């Protein structure tokens, strides 16, 4: 078994002083035992099974954002000095895989089993972890690693699919969203034309063709946010990623763009329920980011927003007066500036409230999916009564009705 000092010979895949792998290899028993507890917690959180020693090594390899891994993620790696340096590092990792630790809790940790919901993004990691034992040589290990970079990516952005932003002292930190609804576009009943427009734009974006920022607007509860959330479930395996931002986080966008620029993924900045009141001015900042700023967004980023109103900025009658003596002299210019925010979205898709018959179709589809066997006439009458009492008719209303029936 190698000592922890062996990790100091790594060049590209350097280990931080407090890395989990380094602590698992520590000469101090207390540090090793604490690290084993952390390894178990990671396994439970991420759905790891089997040999946790290999999982730990696999985690270090797939999460290391270095010049070599980023080049292969962009599919621009080749037979160069970077690959020679990476191969030198793989010799140590191959030896670590071939000579796992023994004694103590390791017999249990190398045959770890627990009930888990293994998601698609975790399955790819587990498959790579299993391949480590079959690599056969440092060269074989490197071949498997570069293949993973090319198909799955590297680091946080490679393993995650949906992210939220968290403000830090240095800017923005992207945090993966682990538990999210497994919704698909087919789950949204109706709105075929709207979904087709969204699919065509997204697929063009993924191919690097002409695509637009998207605004989904219309009545509440009609499936606008669901459509965006479903997109990443449909296209994550093709490199689509979603970053959800709140209104008070728009100043973080430049730092987020810096982090994702040049990565081999396509990012949707998701602005849910986008609207601004009369006295808010952050819409000007958003306009500059979308178009006309000093630096245009990277080509691998599009903004996707939902709103209950098309013009996004609430307009009041006082905006209509062309000349005023207090405030802006030419108020019509202010109106145009406000309304021009929507024009920054090249694709605007309207989600209207369903008709009564469409609402009943949604109820029927949801109840069938839920396995209910109510007579159609009884279901129809109850759904009609529910939408009258709720004061609205939408997909959300239909979902709430079906959920109530299941109680």
TrEMBL record:
Keyword field contains Nucleotide-binding: yes
Keyword annotations of the record: ATP-binding, Nucleotide-binding
Domain AAA+ ATPase: 210-355
Superkingdom of origin: Bacteria
Coiled-coil residue windows: none
SMART domains per record: AAA
Pfam families in UniProt: DUF815
Alphabetized GO MF terms: ATP binding
Matches recorded under Gene3D superfamilies: P-loop containing nucleotide triphosphate hydrolases
Protein known as: ATP-binding protein
